[in-house]
Amino acid sequence: MDKHKSLGITQTKYYTFAETPNEMPLESGGKLGPITLAYETYGELNAEKNNAVLVLHAFSGDAHAAGFHKGDDKPGWWDDMVGPGKAFDTKKYFVICSNCIGGCKGSTGPSSINPKTGKPYAIDFPMITIVDMVNAQRQLIDHLGIKKLLAVSGGSMGGMQVLQWVASYPDMVCCAIPIATTLKHSPQQIAFDEVGRQAVMADPDWRQGNYYGHKQPERGLAIARMIGHITYMSDESMEEKFSRKLKDSNYSFSFKTDFEVEGYLRYRGDSFVKRFDANSYLYITKAMDYFDLSGGKLFPAGRKINTRFLVIAFKSDWLYPAYQSKEIVHELKIRRVEGTYCEIPSTYGHDAFLLEIDEQAHLISHFLNTAYENL
Amino acid sequence: MDKHKSLGITQTKYYTFAETPNEMPLESGGKLGPITLAYETYGELNAEKNNAVLVLHAFSGDAHAAGFHKGDDKPGWWDDMVGPGKAFDTKKYFVICSNCIGGCKGSTGPSSINPKTGKPYAIDFPMITIVDMVNAQRQLIDHLGIKKLLAVSGGSMGGMQVLQWVASYPDMVCCAIPIATTLKHSPQQIAFDEVGRQAVMADPDWRQGNYYGHKQPERGLAIARMIGHITYMSDESMEEKFSRKLKDSNYSFSFKTDFEVEGYLRYRGDSFVKRFDANSYLYITKAMDYFDLSGGKLFPAGRKINTRFLVIAFKSDWLYPAYQSKEIVHELKIRRVEGTYCEIPSTYGHDAFLLEIDEQAHLISHFLNTAYENL
Fold first, then answer.
1. N-term to C-term CA, chain B
2. What confidence tens digit (pLDDT) does each residue in A124-139 have?
3. Which of A318, B55, B72, B176 has the fewest other C-beta atoms within 10 Å?
4. Is the reported ipTM for this assembly greater than 0.90?
5. Structure pTM?
6. Residue A137: what are its φ and ψ, rounded to 5°?
């Protein structure tokens, strides 16, 4: 696997649909429109249009999965996995990465202009769910002229969308690759999300969501992100990276930063608020908490499911523990759906889906290759 | 073990020492005085003064370990363990529970009046450490006329004080019972504490610590406590208690409380701010983060240690995982100190030291009894 081959310069595209009066119905009973989706594509769609792979990002990700945006020195969030000769080999596959609705990275979300008022939606934005995210992506896939996806893949919230794709449109998904994800949030996962939301909403700068035109609730959002970062790493990976290393040579005996881990969290919190909208944080965490395909809801009743699964979990991931991936596999067994489960022995915690490249790439490239050759 | 026998009405006493010009020197290089310690005692000190057991509370605990305060319908925090016929049998032992300095439960802390200014210390309170907490308790034990403690016991931060008692005054401790604790905070433990502190300090009501006479930083402190509660429970115990149960029959599709676990955390956060001082939160978490008896510091070099240990951990405790208790046991082995290790198979997480009574009581009463009979 050559990690160094890059797609070079890539760029984000936009697709707008669901314009008045054809707003998209939402799971909550509301409607949303017009909807813009930010997305990127890499590689070429073949003549048969059967080599398309949809890649879906985690909670705070975006459409920019691979290559470099002009002037940037950092590539997209899954550049190690998407490109020529990589797991999602752009010499063979047409890779699409779609941003989700509700976010703040070019797709319609609470910071977008509400056409009815000419102002940002703020918390008048309707509650969206993983079902709605997938329904919007479906429109994009139709727009690109694709009838059936060779694969849908993603980690964390991206993995929830993978599962929802199968639940909503099983005939459109040849292969599903849910990574470090779950059929439903446990109370512990809901709890971490809820504390983050409360931190945002407790910040007076949140102004009941109407902070646009003012500074955003930076302190609350930074706290929320700091909590997040603890859950993305493992006890082991924090020990390896920070142990009890001090910033200076002695304890400060004050509330300044003593330990490197403290400085790291503060830095991560502070940089997050520059790139992410606080209301999007609220909406998207809520979408994850509402998600629930447990108890047989993964597969529409009475339908033969031909989708093949590769389910990947990471040993040290305690935010989306391996037992949750095994629950997905259990659903496959019950419905006699073909699937492989792999638990990768990483110490990176939940972040492993972004960092543990070699074994993940090996599994995925082999799985995709077999599927593609047997089409 | 009869859990229903109660000590009846108990009350908190106070001991003041280190008055000017005899302030107590602190590990940070500062001084503190006068110092008041709130404490309770249960049972009778025998004529030989060799039946005293010191019980130490966790982070947000207090001196009120057992029995009922007049008018209260809830007993002390370890009432299941302390009383006639219980693990710490007050028919046999003289049990002392000392509150820690830095707190807000009757002992000197940041909300106490600074004699130099006539106003609350706020963040002019000197930084205190576990060493200082134990040095203050040592004064109380001297005051009570006790030369050697039969046992020192406590869970979580109480366990750190147990270890520090042995490190500071090994000849004064016959038995040590550290429960669900550690020789040092890992970066993950520091990280959770730091996020809590940042949440408090980000609240504008914190006013750089000078909120006395105003309302306290309730929102920030509630967030900190919510994070704490997630870490005190286990993934399993949250699943057992809450699963995905809703408060109402349907999703609200809003930012109101949907899930029972959300309501529980909000309730816990809101009730904590009524009983705990935000600056004490900052000082005490910092004391825990600074604590470090790893790498041979548990036992003074070159001294024969006669203290016997009973080290208890709980299987589902991920805040103070069992491996940290095993590190204590490792130190015992290196120095040929007598000790027993027991990992109790509880699902309660870190809270188990307060909830998993039967097995804990069985272990402790047997251990104490043997020690007492062989004095």
1. 24
2. 999 999 999 999 999 9
3. B72
4. yes
5. 0.97
6. -60, -35
